[in-house]
Design goal:
single chain, 193 residues, mainly beta, L,D-transpeptidase catalytic domain-like, 2 domains, four-stranded mixed beta sheet, 18 strands, globular
């Protein structure tokens, strides 16, 4: 590109061209915010041909795309500073209805029901067994062993749209039930910064 020219790049799965800081629609759905990086920076030469998920952490928005067209979008809550939702290319590796939640430090179990922090569905897409440590807003937590990140419901409805989790992606429970029916094991997931 010549100096002084606006950058023009194809945002294929979103059906738009980004010009500098704005978007120009070309017949497909276009998000109102101009903060949509290319999927190619995460190693995808082109978007998957089937159904896939794109999470934009900045906009706190999850898109369900199929054949390059938006099928559904959901507002989400993401990881707080120090416990950010991992960025990169993943795939769905776990699916659970009415999951039991295990506190990562104490090992306490919370059975399915209205008090369960995972809501009624769990869709795991990332597992890391290096352990984790950080301040969670109230205390310093040290998690030894494996930690997982995924999409799940939440009884804390006001947390959706916020950066408040320990790396997971919170959805309203009615939305995670809908999302659960749209994915399967191996569904590609791209998490943008």
């Amino acid at each position: 590109m010549r100096p002084g020219c606006p950058e023009l790049r194809w945002l294929g799965p979103l059906g738009a061209w980004a010009i500098g800081a704005g978007l120009l629609g070309l017949g497909g759905p276009v998000l109102s915010q101009p903060v949509l990086p290319q999927l190619t920076q995460f190693g995808a030469a082109q978007p998957p041909s089937g159904r896939y998920l794109v999470l934009d952490r900045r906009q706190r928005l999850l898109l369900v795309l199929e054949g390059g067209q938006e099928r559904r979008r959901f507002p989400v809550g993401v990881g707080r500073p120090g416990w950010e939702t991992p960025v990169g290319r993943f795939e769905v590796i776990e699916l659970a209805r009415n999951p039991t939640w295990e506190h990562p430090v104490t090992g306490q179990h919370i059975a399915p029901g209205p008090a369960n922090p995972l809501g009624s569905r769990w869709i795991g897409f990332h597992r890391d067994c290096k352990g984790r440590a950080g301040f969670n807003g109230r205390e310093h937590l040290v998690v030894k062993g494996c930690v997982s990140a995924g999409f799940h419901g939440t009884p804390q409805r006001a947390s959706v749209g916020q950066a408040v989790s320990h790396g997971c992606v919170r959805l309203l429970d009615e939305h995670v039930r809908e999302l659960f029916e749209l994915v399967e094991m191996g569904t590609p997931v791209t998490v943008l910064p």
